[in-house]
Structures are given as structure tokens and as C-alpha cells.
Predict the structure.
Amino acid sequence: MEILTEISKNVEIGDSAAVKELVRKALSMNITPEQLLNSGLIKGMEAVGKKFKKNEIFIPEVLIASRAMKSAMDVIKPYMSDVEERSLGKIVLGTVKGDLHDIGKMVVSIALEREGYDIIDLGIDVPKETFLETIQKENPDILGMSALLTTTMTYMRDVIDTIKSAHLNKDVKIIIGGAPITQSFADEIGADGYAQEAESAVTLVKTLLSSDIS
Ligand code: B1M
């Protein structure tokens, strides 16, 4: 669809005003929030990532593109949050210490919230102590960690070890995700699950929580 390509291109060049305008227009054309995210906004960020990798653009351009993506998500979010007043469970989310990437986590958070889960988002650069304190205080069903860097993904193991040392790993299921994460890494560090993107994160959470009941 032409408008999705236009959205993607405007994310790439970081034109927030144009992206927001196009997203509003697309919503009025009954394009779903999921289509907008997957075929418009995320596609734009992927193109940004490729150009960055090839040194065709640099951090300032990536930041401007991220801002455009985030401002569009603010427009989409109300359309994705029209869930009934029900809670299927409580989920704590955070990007691990040392890592400032939060767009993917936001996409996952919106998808889970839309499904009916209560989300406590701890933000970015979250140390293990904060994860632990929040689990002790909030008693969530799921802890979800995100990491986008090969240098920060290893910190997920530290968080899991901390939770195990506090004997809380039986009370909370731990899931992880982010571009460099794989199922074998999840198995290696003792996470309960791994999801590659937002929709599979929703499926994973449902599976983990239903196996909890039986
Ligand atoms: Co950075 N960055 N970045 N960056 N950045 C990457 C990740 C990189 C792959 C770019 C590249 O080289 N091609 C590369 C990492 C290389 C590596 O480690 N292998 C990289 C680098 C190197 C860096 C810096 C080190 C650059 C520097 O300073 N020299 C630096 C590190 C800063 C830090 O964190 N300490 C840095 C900085 C930044 C910005 C701040 C400028 C900005 C982040 C802004 C922000 O998030 N607010 C940024 C961005 C935007 C990117 C790219 C271009 C895009 C990431 C993104 O938002 N994607 C990225 C390249 C890329 O990924 N193609 C890149 C869109 C988003 C929807 O997808 O985040 O993958 P994603 O999330 C997906 C899935 O991964 C999954 O579902 C999401 C939705 O589908 N998922 C989960 C994510 N979390 C999940 C959790 C789950 C389940 C699924 O369960 C809990």
C-alpha cells in the first residue's frame, strides 16, 4: 500500500510531522495499527538500521528517525488500547542495564496491553536491583527483558541469576527478546521463553500463563 511506503520513507528521513499526519490519514482509511507498525514504521526503522550499519547515516540521524517513530506510536497507541477492563496478568518490562533502545520494547508493551495484560514498564538501562525490587513489590506473573546490543544481552543472565538467588524464579516467568537474542541463548541463561517479535511475545505469554494454571 502506497501510504505505508510513504510512512516508512518518512520514518527513514525522520520527518515526525509528516509521519504523524500520514499515520492519522492511514487510520482514517481503516488501515490497522498492526499494519501501520509492521509494514510502515518498523520497516522504516529497519532501513535506518541498514544504513547505519553501512555508515551511510550516523547517530543523530538514527535519533531523529527514532523520534519520528515514537511520535507516531503516540498517535497509534489509543487505537491499540481499546481493550475491555480486564486483566489477564501483570507483566514487568524493561530494557537491561547499559542499553538505551526502547522502541521494540514499546511495541511489545503495546501488543501485550492490547491483549489485556497490565504492564509496568521500567524503561531503559534497568539494573538487576530494580528488576528484583519490582518483582518483590509487584509480584508480577511475567518479567520481560529486552536488549538490542550483543554487549548488553549478557546482562540478562545476571538478572536471572539475581532472581534465582532470591528464590523468586518459581513465582515469575522470565521472557526475553530483542534483535540479537535467540532461543538457544534463552535456554543457555535459563529464561522461560524467547519471542522474536511482538505478536509471538503475546503468544508466548499466553502459553506460559496457561501452563501455570494446569
Ligand atoms: Co542502536 N544499534 N546503537 N541506536 N540501533 C542497533 C541495535 C544496531 C543493530 C545497529 C547496526 O549496527 N545495524 C547496533 C547493535 C549491534 C550489536 O550489538 N550487534 C546498534 C549500535 C551499535 C548502537 C550504539 C552502540 C551506537 C554507538 O553509539 N556507536 C548505541 C548504543 C547505545 C546504548 O544502548 N547504550 C546505539 C544507539 C541507538 C540510538 C539511541 C541512536 C537509537 C535508539 C533509540 C531508542 O530506542 N529510543 C538506536 C536505534 C534506533 C537502532 C536501530 C537502528 C533500530 C532499533 C529499533 O528501534 N528497531 C538498530 C538497528 C536494527 O535493529 N535494525 C540499532 C525497531 C524495533 C521495532 O525493533 O528493537 O528489534 P526491535 O524490537 C523488535 C524485536 O527485537 C522484538 O520485538 C520488537 C517488535 O517487533 N523485541 C522483543 C524487542 N524486545 C523484546 C522483548 C521481548 C520480546 C520481543 O520480550 C520481553
Observations:
- The domain at 2-80 is CATH 1.10.1240.10 (Methyltransferase, Methionine Synthase (B12-binding Domains); Chain A, domain 1).
- The longest strand covers residues 90-95.
